[in-house]
Amino acid sequence: MQATGEYQPAFTGERRRRLDAILARYPTKRAALLPALWIVQEAHGWISDQAMVEVAQALDLTAAYVKGVVTFYTMYHQHPVGRHVIQVCTTTPCGLCGAEGVVEAFLGHTGCRDLGATSPDGRFTVVEVECLGACGFATPVLIDDDFIESVTPEKVPGLLQRYP
Amino acid sequence: MGYPHAPHAKETVVLSQYFGDAEARTYAGWTKRGGYAALRTALGMTPVEVIEIVKASGLRGRGGAGFPTGVKWSFMPKEKSRPHYLCCNADESEPGTFKDREIMRWTPHALIEGCAVAMHAIQAEVGYIYIRGEFTEAIRIMQAALDEAYREGVLGANALGSGKRLDIWIHRGAGAYICGEETALMNSIEGRRGNPRIRPPFPAQAGVFGMPTTVNNVESLTAVPHIINRGADWYKALCLGNPKSTGTKLFSVCGHVARPGNYEVTAGFPLRDLIYDMAGLRPGRTLKACQPGGSSVPILNRAETESCLLDYEGCVAAGTMLGSGGLIVYDDTADMVYQIMRLARFYSHESCAQCTQCREGTGWTVRILERILSGKGTMGDLDLLLDIGAQMTGKTICVLSDSCAVPVASGIAKFRGEFEAYITGARKPVLAVA
User: How do residues B197-237 score in pLDDT, each as one tens digit?
Assistant: First the structure.
């Protein structure tokens, strides 16, 4: 997570080089916006207003335009989140297989009071997502970048131990 | 094959042959299995020759619309005066569908080969594979395969020594169902909000970056190398029903079944066999309903399911659509009112909010269904839902709005008694809201 205080630019060193390589794949600078936002989120854990200004400057866009795009896509965090973000699918096919019980188990075992809230120790944020595209492996859960299939309420405590 | 289960005798395994075989993920493993032979063959043909073979095979778009793939390619300008682009739609987000995920996870080079053949056919030097942001594992595997393909000279400035440039890049989505709609997908690649565009112009005239563009689904593109290798006639002969539907189709079977997974069957295969014999109901359960083409197609009741043939025409005859092949099964324990509300909630969440009918209509639909589920509905609510649904159908830039209205209307038509039970109080409320 980003420390409070002065903004640390994301596009330095290796990350700047990655952005330059991405820019070469597209005929416009604007097209690098989604990849650039991914790099920022990887660096800071979320996308702050200052980060949007940095991205806007890097791609010759306005900060308002960047914000308009950030707010469209649900995977970009507009607020600080826990060290680990847990996304649980609850759409119909998973709902038929007990996904709501999996959500309850994650909320209970992480201490997150509600969906979208971060646990008091700052370790977890639990969110419900719409269809993770793995309906045959109900219930799929995305923890950070780890895609985990066939999660049941019983498996939740063991899973959480892997994310200190 | 019925991955993650063993192949079933009734399957016709073509695209899914190497699901579960980790060696097939590598360039060495893939070429050992015959990989990139089709690309070599195609690069020795003219683009028009490749298009004619795919046209003759009868291959139709596997993303949901079922438009003939070769015909779509033929819409691209023959005289190339501007850059042409291929966009591979790997934004698989239709609830019930998880086939493209397995294609990318197990046979990434098959998709690269399909993209490369298509790019040759439409004279594109650059292709973007738009993968939904949540598919972290598929993205890692596809990126590793692309790196290998560049290293081995399959892609790059001189693809397979042909003198042609072929570049393929992954563009990662960031959480938006609507980006699976082809014009929204192009906007998302351009670094914009994923709002669908008004057509015309169609992508072949003015697509991504305003240039001629073809958008194809992962499964469609993966079928192409098989057609090049084995011929259009072989593919066309894979047909159990209507001759307008050919080849194999992956069905992602999920919901109330004993063996969920991807089953590959020949076009025209009986839906009842797929559910009863292959995926199987859970012990002691009976079938109540299903949606054979993902969450946006009309719901079939048991009798309709048992007589439905799985091709584009067979599904229409049964009153539904083949869609993406995401088969959601509901057994006798399913609360259809709750499940339909849950589907409506999905569409309400995913509406891009450009069109009033969709932005407001999906939200109203959810609230009325929640009211019914909380025991506060009236009989008039059912007519109100149908009326709103009619206003949401055929009136918007894209079909997300229709997709929300369709399961609601078919659900009320076929399971009206379940809705009425909540309204009369015969059934206990399951929601506390509204």
Answer: 999 999 999 999 999 999 999 999 999 999 999 999 999 99
Q: Which positions in chain B touch A34 (Cβ < 8 Å)? A: 171-174, 188, 191
Domain A13-70 falls in which CATH fold? Arc Repressor Mutant, subunit A (1.10.10)
Q: Chain A partners of B326 at a C-beta cutoff of 8 Å?
A: 93, 135
CATH number of A84-161: 3.40.30.10
DSSP-assigned states of every residue in B353-392: S-SHHHHHHHHHHHHHHHHHHTT---HHHHHHHHHHHHHH
Per residue in A71-108, pLDDT (tens digit) is 999 999 999 999 999 999 999 999 999 999 999 999 99
Contact list in B for residue A35 (CB cut-off 8 A) is 171-172
Per-residue pLDDT reduced to its tens digit, A116-158: 999 999 999 999 999 999 999 999 999 999 999 999 999 999 9
Contact assignment for B209 to A31 by CB distance below 8 Å: yes
Contacts of B274 in chain A (CB under 8 A): none
Q: What is the pTM of this model?
A: 0.97
Within chain A, all domains assigned CATH 3.40.30.10 are found at 84-161
The residue among B134, B251, B331 with the most chain A CBs within 10 A of its CB, best to mutate, is B134
B356-373 helix and B379-392 helix, angle to the nearest 10 degrees: 160
Instruction: Give the ipTM of the model, two decimals please.
Output: 0.95
Interface touch B193/A68, C-beta < 8 Å: yes
- Other beta carbons within 10 angstroms of residue A40's beta carbon come to 27
Residue A29: DSSP 8-state = S
Q: Which domains does chain B have, with CATH numbers?
A: 34-236 (3.40.50.11540), 248-331 (3.10.20.600), 336-424 (1.20.1440.230)
Residue B223 token pair: 């079928």
